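The freezer alarm interrupted the setup, so I double-checked each line after restarting. Inputs confirmed:
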Amino acid sequence: MNSFVNKIISSLAISASFVFASINAEMEGLEVVSRDDGTFLIGSPTFYFDRTLGAGGIHSESELWTPRKLRYRLLFDRMSVLPSWDPIETPSVWMKSGNELGDLIYYDILTNPKERPINRTPILEGGFRTPIFHGLWATFRLFQDDYYCFRSAYGVRQKQVDGYFSFFGENWPMFSSAYGGLGFTNDFIDASVLVGMEYMWLFTESSRWIPVQFKPRVEARADFGNFSTTLVYENAEYQNKRKKETGERTEVNGSIIYKCGESCRRGMLQLSAGLAFRFVGDDGVVYTGLNNDRVLWPFLEMNVRPQEHLKFDVMFGINDRDWLVQDSVEYNIPVLEKMNVSVGAKNISGTRLNPIADTHEFFDGDTISLTAAGHMDLLQGYVRFEDSLTSFLGFGLRGSFWTEYGAETFDTEEFVDDQIYTFRHGDVSRINSWIKGVTGEFWLKLWLKDVFNFTALTGFERIDGEEKRFEVNPSEFFVQFNADWLIKKMFRISHSIRYRSDAQWNLRSRDPFVVKGDWFWDATFEQRFPKWGISLTGTIIQALGKEVIEAPNGEYSRVRFVCTAKKAF
Amino acid sequence: MKKIITLLALSLVSLLHAEDSLAFRNDSAAVKDDISFSHFAVFLEGGEIYPMGDLMDAVENALYGGIGVRYSYWENVDGVVMFQYTYFKPAIDVYIDGVHQFMGRVGVDWKWNPIHPVVLGGGFTCSWTHADSEAQKWSEPGGTLTDNETEFGWYARISLPVFKYQKYSLGFNVMWEHLWTLPKSSNMLSAGITLERSIW
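Predicted 3D structure, all chains:
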């Protein structure tokens, strides 16, 4: 390996390990809770705004479709890891339990019932995956997150549905999921079929929480040769008990992708091509709609490495309704090799950030269009520099400038109050003027073999434009200090302390909804037993910060503790 | 030098950010050094719990009992897992007769040579409570306890083995427990006797 490649790999590897400390996420897909290197505002596990500072544009990452997210879940118009139906790959058994801190226990005997703090709620998960037997394996998983749920549980959401709306308990969690299935894995194929049921509350453009029960949901996957295929069947039941409305959606969706093989990956040009699709059949009141009841989304990916220092990546998708291009170029400047300087540019253009999502939402006689005429263009240029001064100290910086025309936003025509919520009428539209942003990040790292690492990371962003009709004004500044210790290869302590400045939601309430800046502290303690393949962890999440609601119509983000036990077979 | 940095960086990534959170079991050096479970013991424990601070006005002192396991983790450090049960009676007149409380604790005991044979311990604790009551009067004091209430916290303890005979040992321990409850944290002190039998 030559020194230049070495440098790049070491820079990437080190930065990957330092961007955020190894805080255990409370659930797959909720890593965003412990991130503040940008704007990460959580309304519930099923709805959040997640935008890394310096990403460019005013959209959040989950709003954007990319081929990487083919097996993510489509939650209304966002691509989400949670609730993940990726089978856990390690043959193991695991259990997770936790609670938001602040139940009364014996203080309830001393407290006036009218002055009780609001109830704190738990998290729950259990599952297993068997070892492979003649290529066959089985898995089961039950998981639900009762955090971010109690404010609206009894007064509002309970009245929307018949009976209990979760597998376990009475807290009305925003999702509750269970699946089981079989798989077959050998040298040629990795295939699985999972069958399950799921309760979920989806957040829509009108700002409503819509209960959906997937009964059943079936997901089949097969990876063979250079192909990855996914086929999903969902029977989704919709209801609103208050309005005596019911509906049902039968959906078949999935994807097939051809990925560049081993030999082509070593070449100058790498090509991948695929197709994502959805077919839906709606009956009764379903609250959202898809034009022609189907979407077919063919796409092409191309990575070109014309020389050692230069790389181009392009993704292009098109169908009868939409087109989307995402491309980037990066050049590591050879004359500045010792300083490891790279310059790059990225572009996103398209008629829609998520071309596979539904096209309409139906709200009290109104049809909210989820597509806007025209298209958006985002251009970003950046300079990045990273180096290690010694074998235990490194630092880097990245500066970027971006500009976006036609950014997706929402034209709010009317607000409607309903109990604790404010809903909105209007349509998805565009900001047809240029928005400009400038960003800067700086990081400093210290590490000692595989025992300790520390990083201090800070960033700022300034956004300007003629029309500031952003759904979210991102946070402008953050600073964070992360550290991981691994003692005798068996005991891990990871912690992250960070500050994020104010962020602000617009367009979803009459007055701007400000999420005040705050400090947060997270920590994970893990006992490892390498010989036995056992891990015991305890994680404190969102400590220090004031417990606030981070999104309109959202729920409180509270300090919580999660413990997990895992045993590999 | 860069190669070293690369290797270190990659090993950090693999150790700390592995997709497979149990990947450390594939680290042969870690497996070789792992002496965990080279000793294993079970114990019975019993004693009394004393609520502290405001909680003295809420519930009375109570007896507790439990079981646990102790296993070697490092040379001077044992891992401990405990399950205990107690029954608290209210100290004031409320409609519930009492509260069943189950406690689960995971922690470590540190056999620090300078203070031998005293052992220092600490870890996380979780209390699960359920009121002993037929009625469910949510709007009265104690009402939330008729639902299942759970809270986490930490504990610290000192143990003193005073008597050893073959595979058995008998000792005292004193524990401070801190639960992250509201409107204030809950503190309790417990003192007990432990009878331990080494299994291997």
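Quick read of the result. The first helix of chain A runs from residue 3 to 18.
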